[in-house]
Each structure stands twice: as structure tokens, then as C-alpha cells.
Amino acid sequence: MNKPIVGITMGDPAGSGPEITIKALADPEQYTYCRPIVVGDVKVFEQARKFVGREDIVIHRCDKVSDALFTPGTIDVLHLDLIEDINKFEMAKVSVEGGNAAFQCVKKVIELAMAGEVDATCTNALNKEAMNKALEYYHGEKSDGYTHFDGHTEIYATYTHTKKYTMMLAHHDLRVVHVSTHVSLREACDRVKKERVLEVIEIANKACKDMGIENPRIAVAGLNPHCGENGLFGREEIEEITPAIEAAKAEGITGVVGPCPPDSVFSQAIGGWYDIVVCMYHDQGHIPLKTVGFVYDREKQEWKAVEGVNVTLGLPIIRASVDHGTDFYHAGKGNGNELSLVNAIKYAVKMTGREA
Questions:
Q1: How many domains is the chain built from?
Q2: Burial class (CB in 10 A: 0-12, 13-18, 19+), 279
Q3: Residue 140 belongs to what domain range?
Q4: What is the pLDDT along the chain (356 residues), one digit of tens a residue?
């Protein structure tokens, strides 16, 4: 019973989250290294098991975590009554009801983790448009003081009262963290400041050590082509990034190097040069991760693999997530790929330090 309890959110019920959750937890292997409990609406999962052709799986309604059985062949669902009429709920469409359901599941799993009832959290995808429409519809301008969230990361930061945090994406040994994420490219350039770059280096260093890497090798990517060519293409490397690296070294983070040219640093990281790469903005980190993690089969014209894990660092609780969207295209068809969710659950367990 020392296996960690992992709370898994339903995600937007109009997407493939519930279906890939059924597929992931239908495999008894997941129960060998953790005790999973899903936070969502039982009605959604009763429907999802039909979509994926696994009506043999038992959906066990729980009113509290202690009700869970944690038995292969049975999926424990901490029930939140979120969908009024499952027969009228439309799949693969943005809706206020779906957005609210996804948001409420995230809030609940954060509460459970903060209370110590689950050891780690794992999130399925939500639709940002649906969620923010729901916040506006249900709560107006006084939704706990927040009327807009850019995504899971900001929800977690808000409800855990965390000021210093960053997103990490991982595909096997390739890991990237970000100085900024969900902002315009123009604003992202303005956010490359010494204090923030140093902060992300520090968070990256701690995350690697928490995962058992004794002496992390941290590459810091440049912002400009060729790292600015000594100021010819921009001065951010000279004025902000290099000073942050030097400050990190002064703190004792000896494994940090850079600025490294962004067009080659990821190939080097895949080759084992580095344990983690500090990226300056969203796409700088996301593109290489999804290039290696998302594999499309030309002949079969379908996704052969959709791998990758999204982890929020700097929080007082553990949060890992799938590295893909709500996947409306596959929703209701039963053919969504569960591999990213399985990887996310395993990563969450890894971060508890209680790997099987």
C-alpha cells in the first residue's frame, strides 16, 4: 500500500480524455506502480467505456478518496455531478458545460493534493476557450478574483498560491523548461530578463535533482539566431541571458552552460549532452519535443505515437499532464492514443520518489 495515489482529471468531456483514461487504466500494469483515482463525472466514464469497447471495465463511484478500491479491472471515479444529461451532451464541441466540468475537476484534484489525500496529480487536456467561457458564464467578473486562465499551469499556480513556476516538457531523456509560455512572441522577447532566466535555471536544477540526477547538466538556449552573433542580431544574450548563467554558477549550479544556439542544442540534448534545456519561449521548447514525440504513420494515415509529458515545476504539489490537446477529432470514436497519459502517470509517480 506504499504505492502513491495519483489523482487523474477527466479533462474536457467533449474530448478524448475520458476515453484514453479508460484505455490507460484498463491495463493492469498501471496498478503495479500506483493507485490511480479519476476525478470526474461517472456518467461520462460509463459512456466512454462504450466508446472504447471496454464495457467489461467496472466504473466504481467514489464520494471520497478512501472509497477507492484500486483494483485492476475497476476504475475508481471520485464523482462530481457535472454533466446534466449525458445523452444530450455533444462530443467534439466547445461548450460552457464541458469547460466548467474540466475546470471543476482541476480545482478538486488540487484540493485533494494540497490536503494530502493524493500524492500526485495528472491532468487530461482541457479546452481553454471552453474553460474561460465557463468561468465568465458561471461566475462573471468575480470568479474567485480570476476570470481568465491561460491553461492548467496558471490554474495550479493560482490555487496553490505559487509565484515562481515554469512548465517542463519531457520525452524520455529530452527535457525542456520555459522562461515564458502562453504569451505573444513579441511579449515573450520582452520577458527574457536576467531575473526570470536565473529563476528558471534554479527550478530546472532542483527538478533534475528531485528526479535523482545528482549533478544536472543544464543548457540555456539563446533567444536570437546564432545567439545574437555578439550583438549583431540582438543583445539579449549579452545583457540578460549570460548574466543569469553567471549568477547561477555563482550560486553553485556548476552544470549550467550557454547561451547555446537554439538550432543545435536540442540535437545535443537528445545525444545525451544535457539533462535539461532552458528555453526562452513556448515554441522554442514545444517544437523539438513534439517533433520527436508525435509520430505520424504516412501509410496508415494515423498517429502511431503521441508521446510527451507536461510537468509544472515549482509547485508545492506534483502535477504531470498529457502533452496534447483535447483531441476533438478522435473524441467519441474510441481510437484516441493513451500513450501520453500513461507516460504522464509514470512521470508523476517518478516525481514522488516512490517508483515501483
A1: 2
A2: buried
A3: 5-162+315-352
A4: 689 999 999 999 999 999 999 999 999 999 999 999 999 999 999 999 999 999 999 999 999 999 999 999 999 999 999 999 999 999 999 999 999 999 999 999 999 999 999 999 999 999 999 999 998 887 664 445 556 888 898 899 999 999 988 889 998 889 999 999 889 999 999 999 999 999 999 999 999 998 889 999 999 999 999 999 999 999 999 999 999 999 999 999 999 999 999 999 999 999 999 999 999 999 999 999 999 988 888 988 877 777 788 899 999 999 999 988 888 888 888 888 898 899 999 999 988 887 64
Domain check: are 53 and 22 in the same one? yes
Residue 306 within a domain? no
E strands, 172-322, are: 174-178, 218-221, 256-260, 276-279, 294-297, 302-306, 309-313, 319-322
User: Is residue 123 exposed (0-12), middle (13-18) or buried (19+ Cβ within 10 Å)?
Assistant: buried
